[in-house]
Amino acid sequence: MHIVVASGKGGTGKTTVATSLALIAAEQDNVRFMDCDVEAPNAGLFLNPDLDTRKEVGILIPQVDESACTYCGKCAEVCQFHAIAVIGKKTLVFPELCHGCGSCTLVCPDNAISEHLDVMGVLESGPAIHEIDFAQGVMNVGEPMAVPIIRELKKWKPVNTLAIEIRDAPPGASCSVVETIRGAGFVLLVTEPTPFGLHDLKQVAEITRELGLPAGVIVNRDGIGDNAVQEYCDESGIPILMRIPMERRIAEAIASGKLLLEAAPEYRQGFQNILETILVGVHA
Amino acid sequence: MKQLVILSGKGGTGKTSVTAALAHLASESQYENRFIMADADVDAANLELVLKPRLLEEQDFRGGQVAVIDQDTCASCGDCVAVCRFDAINYTDRLYVIDPIACDGCAACVYQCPTESIAMHEQTVGKLYVSDSRYGPLYHANLFPGQENSGKLVTLVKQRARLQALDENRELVIVDGPPGIGCPVISATSGADLALIVTEPTVAGVHDMHRALQTVQHFGVRALVCINKADIYPAGSDEIESFCRDNGIQTVGKVPFDLTVVTAMVHGEPVTAFRPDAPASVAISIIWEQVLESLLEKVV
């Protein structure tokens, strides 16, 4: 079972929800947790993993063997991203434009292209609290593309392969969110009842609809803002699974690095219900 | 002309609320009628929700292409699946079909298909908007859900804003940036004279502020830091201030946690316009003074 926690708007409480859900899930099953927000990974700050395994990840980019290259230009012709060019008697590769698709390697008639890993970030993993298997992708500063790192992260398989998998998504509603959501069984959408929260919730809900995935909403900081999230959920038939009221003590605890369930154990039952709803609903 | 970009690393620290307030304050400063706004957070574009602009122009944004298989000539050999590194080609109901969401647009399959049954099709992946708001022109956009945020749409939004600023001798472009540190952030930061990092004193906010600062420094852009919701966790706030002091980064203000910001958002107004005497408004006014000073500073 793969559960993704997404939001659209940043800072609505994705990581807060994902880490507490992981805690509850770990009481009944093996859990693997993936922090897919590779630009700003924060779940590790709450789950305190012992990151004992580290692997560099990225994409395979071309390397041209000048002694074999006949400068025919086939590679440049097929590259959609202008990442390889033939200028006179020189074939140049621009790694920052390359998507690692391998098309140039395939079309080279002289077998002059080999590929090597262009490192974009690292994949770190290890055991976290409550024996949660934890992994996160960390994109290197200055790198543009998050998706290849997320793709590698999703391939990570800890020892316990039969497990509840929880993925913490990046904010927004673009390709990196789609990559995180692809293959999921349920998407938990965390929002806040404000115009910003609603606007961005709609964007991600559109993705889950297109992918045909079941989804449910958690309204965080309930009590602030307005009623428009409720109205939208009613209209679009997305169930609201839980409300977490705006409370200063919760905000303060999370600011200091505490888990929601440590600060407010009264939400245990709520998370247990959500987990059950997801597991039962998906197997039904 | 100067470019000011507002960034954060972590989402939800208050970039857009601060940006809207700065735009309001700019309209009452020497920059009145002399600045332009650009919303560079194209997959969660929220500045328009506060500025309530009047739409003047809209334009389709044609993004990358996706591969499409012609089922009439496809020989079902599966060569395309073997070369696709994006797992975008599925075999269902005895047909090979390309998932447009997963397709990266690399066209590797096009060149490997023995029956030449695959072609690239251009897609409209978003819209660019030009609007007029009560504080001045606003360039914004909507990247359709799930599309690739390569930064190209961000670049277009900024280019158009810059062109109008140049045409009309406007001296400032205020860019509301996206969260994270990747391509759209790089595009939003490129060409900026000054970055204002809006952070919050939470373990996550501080962690991501470091990454945002490293990113703007990587691209050689000067940064200022302001701390939003500063009183939520005073220890975190102190940590940010001492880090900035040690690293020669100016902390330009602390905004207290103030629900007036949310009420203002619901009313579609920047907090400084909605209630100028609210604690958050007073704090943001001080930040604006400092930002203004930095913008006007002659950098040698």
Commentary on this structure:
The complex is a heterodimer of chains A (284) and B (300). Chain A contains eleven helices and eleven strands. Chain A has 284 residues and is α/β, with parallel strands linked by helices. Chain A has a nine-stranded mixed sheet with strand order 3-6-7-2-8-1-9-10-11, sandwiched between helices. In chain A, strands 4-5 form a two-stranded antiparallel ribbon. In chain A, helix 1 (14-26) packs across helix 11 (268-283) and helix 5 (147-154) runs parallel beside helix 6. Chain B has two domains: 2-52 and 134-296, 3-Layer(aba) Sandwich (Rossmann fold), CATH 3.40.50.300; 64-124, Alpha-Beta Plaits (2-Layer Sandwich), CATH 3.30.70.20. The longest helix of chain B is centred in the C-terminal third of the chain and has 18 residues, at 279-296. Chain B is built from eleven helices and eleven strands. The mean pLDDT of chain B is 96. The chains are: A alpha/beta (284), B alpha/beta (300). At the A-B interface, helix 4, helix 6, helix 7 and helix 9 of A face helix 4, helix 6, helix 7 and helix 9 of B.
| Order of SSEs of chain B | EHEHEHEEHEEHEHEHEHEHHH
Beta content of chain A comes to: 25-35%
Task: Show the largest interface.
Answer: A-B, 61 and 69 residues
Helix content of chain A: 25-40%
Please give the order of strands in the largest beta sheet of chain A.
3-6-7-2-8-1-9-10-11
CATH topology label of the largest domain in chain A: Rossmann fold
DSSP, total strands of chain A? 11
Largest beta sheet of chain B, briefly? 9 strands, mixed
Average pLDDT of chain B works out at 96
Instruction: Describe the strand arrangement of the main beta sheet of chain B, using strand numbers.
Output: 3-6-7-2-8-1-9-10-11
CATH topology of the largest domain in chain B: Rossmann fold
CATH architecture of the largest domain in chain B: 3-Layer(aba) Sandwich
Annotation field: number of helices of chain B: 11
Largest sheet of chain A: 9 strands, mixed
Distance between the termini of chain A: 13 Å
Global shape of chain B: elongated
Structural class of chain B: alpha/beta
CATH class of the largest domain in chain B: Alpha Beta
Helical content band of chain B: 25-40%
- Contiguous low-pLDDT stretches of chain A (5 residues minimum) are none
User: Span between N and C termini of chain B?
Assistant: 16 Å
